[in-house]
Amino acid sequence: MIRFRHRPLHPSCAIPRRGRILLCVAAAWLAPAGLHAQAAPAPAPPAARAEADAAASARSAPLSAPMPMDPAVRTGTLANGLRYWIRANAEPADRAELRLVVNAGSVLEDSTQRGLAHLVEHMAFNGTRRFPRQKIVSYLESVGMRFGPDVNAYTSFDETVYMLTLPTDTASVMETGLDILVDW
Fold it and tell me: What is the pLDDT of residues 9-64, one digit of tens each?
């Protein structure tokens, strides 16, 4: 059994022992964040100001209004109807995150199809015509990606999402990653 000190850890923690630790941790966490007088913060860089402006406009918009788009995101629709969103990020460095979001989840299945979207998600990693058997996972691991953290998928109520995190140091890796998404 773990025993805690009987006396309070901080003078403001004059409460019963059970909640004392949590409250003291919260007080210690909040204190540096601005409960005491501090100097004025430095002006925000332009990107941070743009994000703050977008957040402010989102807070003042009526609930029926469409959600404002991040100005750093480029969107479009390909001739085949595929919609895309592209945003440059500094982190993780030298990596591109590719996601294929499919409008197929458990809520869209009828009683004879229960679990089918999830099964298809798992089978996608077992191979395609261009990447038979375990070639997808083998290739991605050969370029430094790990199955799980960098290569993964999930199925929810209304969507199935395939995720690839790829190194951006060679164009051929990106092309192959896009080929994998096309096959899925």
Answer: 444 444 444 433 333 333 333 444 444 445 556 666 776 777 777 677 667 778 88
Answer whether 153's CB lies under 8 Å from 147's CB: no
* Beta pairing partners, 95: 167
Asked about 121 being catalytic, the answer comes back as yes
Q: Which residue is catalytic, options 51, 121, 141, 159?
A: 121
Q: Say how many C-beta atoms besides its own lie within 10 A of residue 126's C-beta.
A: 13
Torsion of Cα atoms, 13 then 16 then 22 then 27, to 10°: -20
Alpha-carbon distance values, 116 to 77, 110, 123, 136, 181 (Å): 28, 10, 10, 21, 19
**CA–CA separation, 117 and 184 (whole Å):** 12
pTM of structure: 0.62
Residue 68 makes CB contacts below 8 A (sequence gap 6+) with 54, 57, 58, 61
Cα three-residue angle 160-154-173, rounded to 5 degrees: 90
**For tokens 């788009």, what's the residue?**
69
